[in-house]
Structure formats: structure tokens, C-alpha cells
Amino acid sequence: MGAPQDSLTYLLLKAAKRSLAALEAELADLDLTARQYLLLTLAATGKELSQQDLAAKLDLDPTIIVKIVDQLEDRGLLERTRATDDRRRHQLILTPAGKQLLRDARAREQSVERTFPASASLRDLLRNALGY
Amino acid sequence: MGAPQDSLTYLLLKAAKRSLAALEAELADLDLTARQYLLLTLAATGKELSQQDLAAKLDLDPTIIVKIVDQLEDRGLLERTRATDDRRRHQLILTPAGKQLLRDARAREQSVERTFPASASLRDLLRNALGY
DNA sequence: TATTGTTATACTCTATAACTATA
DNA sequence: TATAGTTATAGAGTATAACAATA
Predict the structure, then answer these.
(1) How does residue B2 score in pLDDT terms, banded at 50, 70 and 90?
(2) How many other CB atoms sit within 10 Å of the CB of residue A122?
(3) Largest CB tally within 10 Å, which of A106, B62, B70, B88?
(4) Interchain contact, A20 vs B8, CB within 8 Å
(5) How far apart are the C-alpha atoms of A60 and B100, rounded to whole Å?
(6) Extended beta strands in A13-132, E state
(7) pLDDT value at residue A1
(8) Which residues pair with B78 in a beta bridge?
(9) Which of chain B's residues have a Cβ under 8 Å away from the Cβ of A18?
């Protein structure tokens, strides 16, 4: 007892960093950061998420979301449109190029995840723990 | 398929952040950050770890380690002594106050981890995945 | 009045480079 | 010549506050 590898927080931090680094490396070919990829994924769900919702889901400040969306919009991967029911909100719509890139990115993520030991049971456990 | 909660990286990041936040909150009473706590834990193992070793284990820059050790030393929780076999290296020794605080901190971490769903099996899985 | 998104700015955190001492 | 630790500084990343538009 007492070693840092007994600490769940330590283990989660290490695993998250390793997983993130592997994903970033895999997405580098596509000129996509993990954040951009995850934001694209959220925008692609079709749910009417405000940028503030995205901020909460990605644990980021709303002002950071603005910048990431700027980057993706500048590259023509998504577009901001006004939500019809509440014109303060922006509805993020993936362009065809964005959808294609997201497909490629997903395939890459899946291949990198297969290299992570026990990824399937780990995912199940985390989903339960986080309430998804 | 395709939702962010399918992404192992996303799940690990969320879980790590949640776990870290809970730990920080629990350690706040002791005026200890999670980093300081984890460094103390590593220093307490008795292994002759250089500050560079600590940097690698904590995924931090060596210059960050200097500052954290400064903070802990200023509070009288540990002391830098020169390693006898290689006088370039610093051997970090916990003071009695440091040992006592570490005991308290560990107890707090254990209690907060018990609130994390399936923490035991999660820890086992992560240990295996990370090769500990 | 409150909320969404945005911008500009200040702040914090981290990494880089240069130095001392030991090897 | 290389490595451990330190310091000062530059750079990146983040949050804060103020604003316009909409509710």
C-alpha cells in the first residue's frame, strides 16, 4: 500500500494522458487535434447543443469553444447557423468535408484503441462509472 | 456508434478530471494539491528517485518538480539531501510532519475513491493496462 | 433581466535556455 | 562531455470581464 499506482486518480491521469497522446499522434496526419475531433463528434450527434453545452461536455471554457469552432469553420469542416427556436444559439452543422474527415478520424481512433489493453471492458466500466 | 462516450480517450479524460476534482476537494482541507500529494507519495516510497524520475512518473517538466518540492520543503514536509552515491542528485526525505500529513491525505483519498463506482475493478484494469 | 456568443485583455501555467555543480 | 538541479524568461494556454444580440 501507498505506492502511487494504488491511487485511482494517478492511474486515470496516466491512462488518460497515454490515450490522448496516442490519439493525437494518430490524428496528426489529418491535421486534427483531439479536441477538434471530439468537438466534431459532439456536433455530429445531431442534438441541438449550444456552444455552452459543448463547453460543459468537453470540460472547457466557452471561450475556448469559440476558438475551436473558428478553426473548424475556417477549414470548411462545419458551419455556424442560427438555431430557429432560439436565435441566440448557434447550431453547428458539419459540411460534407467535415463528415468525411470525421469518418476517417473515427476509423483511426478505433484502430488506436485496439492497441490499448482491455479497452472494451475498460470502456464499459468507465461508461457505467460516469453514468452514460 | 459515434457518440463521444464511445471514445475511450473521452471517457478517460472525463473520469480523470472527475477523480482529480474530487481528490483536490478532499485534500483542500490539508492545503495540499493533488500534485503535491502524489509527489509526496512517490518520495515516500523510499526508492532513490531523482527529481527527473519524479518528472517522468508524474508527466511533468523537471522545472515544475523543482517548484513543487520548494513548496513542500518550505512547509517543512520534506527535505532535500544530497544523494551519497551521486552528489548531483537530491534525495527527498519526508519529515515527521510530512509523513503524518501523507497518512491523513491517504485516508482521505481512500474515502473519496470509495465513492467512485467500481473503483476496485477499475484500478485493477488500469494497472494492467499501464503495466504496473 | 438573463443568456448566448464574441472579443480583448490579463493571468496562470508550462517549457526553453542558460547556468552551477557534480560526474 | 554529459547529467542533475536551478533560475529567469519567453511562450502557450486559459480565464475574466465587458459587449452586442436575443430571449
Answers:
(1) confident
(2) 24
(3) A106
(4) no
(5) 36
(6) 78-82, 90-94
(7) 56
(8) B94
(9) 130
Residue numbers of chain A with a pLDDT score lower than 70: 1
Give tens-digit pLDDT for B45-88.
989 999 999 999 999 999 999 999 999 999 999 999 999 999 99
Interface mutation target, options B1, B9, B32, B104, chain A, most CBs of A under 10 Å? B9
- A131 Ramachandran zone, left/alpha/beta (phi>0; psi -120 to 50): left
CB A51 within 8 A of CB A91: no
The total of other beta-carbon atoms located within 10 Å of residue A65's CB is: 23
Which set of grid coordinates corresponds to residue B42?
A: 512517490
Residue (of B118, B111, B129) closest to B23 by Cα position: B111
The whole-number pLDDT of residue B1 equals 57
Q: What is the CA radius of gyration of chain A?
A: 17
Q: What angle do CA A34, A36, A38 make, to 5 degrees?
A: 65
Q: Is the CB of A88 under 7 A from strand C?
A: yes
Residue A130 to residue B11, Cβ atoms within 8 A: yes
pTM listed for this prediction: 0.96
Average pLDDT, chain A: 96
Q: State the pairing for strand pair B78-82/A90-94.
A: unpaired
Which residues in chain A touch residue B55, judged by CB atoms under 8 angstroms apart? Answer: none
Interaxial angle between packed helices B34-43 and B96-113, expressed in degrees from 0 to 180 and rounded to the nearest 10: 120
Residue with cell 523510499: B46
